[in-house]
């Protein structure tokens, strides 16, 4: 059996005392010459000596580890960039991340919290796959940072996407392109927090543009999927010409993909006949549409970085209990254009008494 190198082996190789080796390898302030310090480090590398993290933790009261508890992020590529952001910050500051994925099981979650506490992690992050309000689990540390979720009562620091501003940004893209009949295809019941926030952003921009909201232009999907998006878009595109939307804002990219199918089924071309904006910038969906989908990105990576920076104390926060709203940027692609002339100017057609259907208009089905 190979014996693990000891500090005494380093001392013998360097020709110094064990105390000198300890002071050098722990970066203590000493009067030891630079040449001797370098000799000690060279000897440690030569014999393969690595300081014990456990022993160092006992001396410094820090283990240089962070516990990250999640519901199902580790098994969901869509939200995995939160972990990437957190791990990048931890690595930059010399910390190791213990990731425990509970699968949403309360019993496993309690065991995970107990295990991380027993390991004396320096910090803890509690993460969810999607924006929601959660009850802080029993036994969780008071300085735990909540990632992509809000603790009930605001008892902990947290970071979530700014879904209201994201919804407003999406609709501004459509208003800026000249649209005034903009539909919102919403999530199904039970609605997530993001649903109401994005709808508030939608209404805010309509008010800014002097557009009266039309209740018929808000449709809930039967399921949050491409199938649900297609059914909802079919309902909207079947409306009479004077009430039919020229643009769709979809709760997420999967719903938007269904809206694409509904438009093509009616012979409509995007964005010539119909503009569509999604939400999430979901991998393998948004950019893969034809044409690529303009959408709003969830800032997963940035939220992960923020949470780890706050957990490690490298980001100062004026209000430790505040929920930080992370910007959701618009990702502009090719699914937004000006409204079709035959829909944007119905009064001109009526004035000319032209009863012939414009060549580009799709028949009602």
From TrEMBL:
CDD domains: HTH_LacI (cd01392), PBP1_sucrose_transcription_regulator (cd06288). SMART domains: HTH_LACI. Keywords: DNA-binding, Repressor, Transcription, Transcription regulation. It comes from the Bacteria. GO terms for molecular function: DNA binding. Pfam families: LacI, Peripla_BP_3. Residues 5-60 form the HTH lacI-type domain. Residues 331-365 are annotated as: Disordered. This is LacI family DNA-binding transcriptional regulator.
